[in-house]
Amino acid sequence: DDTDKGGFPHFMLKEIHEQPTVIRTLIERYIDKSQYCVKPLPLSFDPNTIERMAFVACGTAYHAGLLGKYWMESLANLPVDVDIASEYRYRDLIQPKQGVFVAFSQSGETADTLAALRRAKSENQHIVSVVNVESSSMARESTDRLPTCAGAEIGVASTKAFIAQCVVALCLAIYVGRQRGTMDAATEHDIVTALLALPNQIENSIHHIEPIQQIAYAMAPANDVLFLGRGRHYPIALEAALKLKEISYIHAEGYAAGEMKHGAIALIDGHVPVVCLCPSDNLLEKSLSNMQEVMARKAQVVLVAEESVCQSNKTAHHIIIPSVHPVIAPILSVVPMQLLAYYTALALGKDVDQPRNLAKSVTVE
Ligand code: G6P
């Protein structure tokens, strides 16, 4: 039952544990498992005639949109503007003649995202919604719908809905890339193979919570926490910081690792934990070098990386992530970040499911 805690102490923890099931549901819906490809998506436009896309959202859903941009631009060679809905709705926009507006939203009712969608519609953009609540206003007012099928999400801090938005954004990028001829079948095969393995990998990693609990206890007294990530892990750094601040009330910032020396580095001393997301991709060396820079300033580093990387870099703490296709890696590495926020909030005795001042769905401006 979606509305009871199913034996978990909090909805948030239950929803974190539901993520493998959510991904399996999305695989059934969006993946052709015999052909190792994304099933044709019900889109009312031809991806070959599209000039640009706009991914628009609020909060956690915005981070899914930002990650979607990295995928869409690399797999489909299509430029994407990612916007916070409250900015998009009032800004002077230059709308492309053939543009696609994609709303990302769990509830489908967030006032700013809905207003942005209505504006885009009035300006002749194709409207796609990546929403969880299929009967929502956004779903009803869109031409094309890509449901995220995550089931009811009760915890105010979004977890399973985020992962679902990411999986759908990836499927959209793969499909559009295939249609536009910018991604070969072998690449699609490799990414889909990795996606099929993801539910089991998340299931295994969710049960290794002890190191994360220890880090959470060490992190709980902090006033500031930084999360650094590059490329596809920049949106994950932002999401990790948002999760932590939402439920623990610790000031947290996500930073593009390369941008850290333009500001956030001024915060660093021996009391500031810095979580360095260092997946084994083409930017690993750059990410590790940023980590060395913060270590030189005595930061308490939490290295999030594959086992071999953790072994060859001695840091205060580490979280091991399984070896996985680099395109998929962000979907996997967000899970320990959710657990880290959860256990830190718990260590501080905060109300994990109902954090102060926040609402599950912001239906007024
Ligand atoms: C609120 C919630 C967040 C959510 C955001 C956008 O701030 O607390 O968890 O990410 O709204 O909501 P939506 O329903 O549009 O995804």
Mind describing the biggest β-sheet? 5 strands, parallel
| Total of DSSP H or I helical runs spanning 4+ residues | 13
Straight-line distance between termini:
32 Å
Order of helices and strands: HHEEEHEHEHEHEHHHEHEEHEHEH
Unique ligands? 6-O-phosphono-alpha-D-glucopyranose
The average pLDDT value, as a whole number, equals: 96
Helical amount among residues, as a percent range? 40-55%
Using the CA coordinates, give the radius of gyration.
20 Å
Low-confidence stretches: none
Instruction: Count all strands and give the number.
Output: 12
- Output the strand order for the largest sheet: 4-3-5-6-7
Strand content: 15-25%
Q: In oligomeric terms, what are we looking at?
A: single chain
Shape: globular
Protein described:
The model has no long low-confidence stretch (mean pLDDT 96). The chain contains 13 helices and twelve strands. It has helices spanning 11-17, 19-30, 59-75, 85-88, 111-122, 137-141, 160-180, 185-206, 210-219, 234-248, 284-296, 307-312, 329-347, and strands at 31-32, 37-38, 52-57, 80-84, 99-105, 126-131, 144-145, 224-229, 251-256, 273-277, 300-305, 317-320. The relative contact order is 0.14. The chain has a five-stranded parallel sheet with strand order 4-3-5-6-7, sandwiched between helices. It is globular and about 55 Å long. β6 (126-131), α6 and β7 (144-145) form a beta-alpha-beta unit. By secondary structure, the chain is of the alpha/beta class. The longest helix is centred in the middle third of the chain and has 22 residues, at 185-206. 6-O-phosphono-alpha-D-glucopyranose binds at residues 58-61, 105-107, 110, 113, 156, 158, 358, 360-362. Residues 58-61, 105-107, 110, 113, 156, 158, 358, 360-362 line the site of 6-O-phosphono-alpha-D-glucopyranose (G6P).
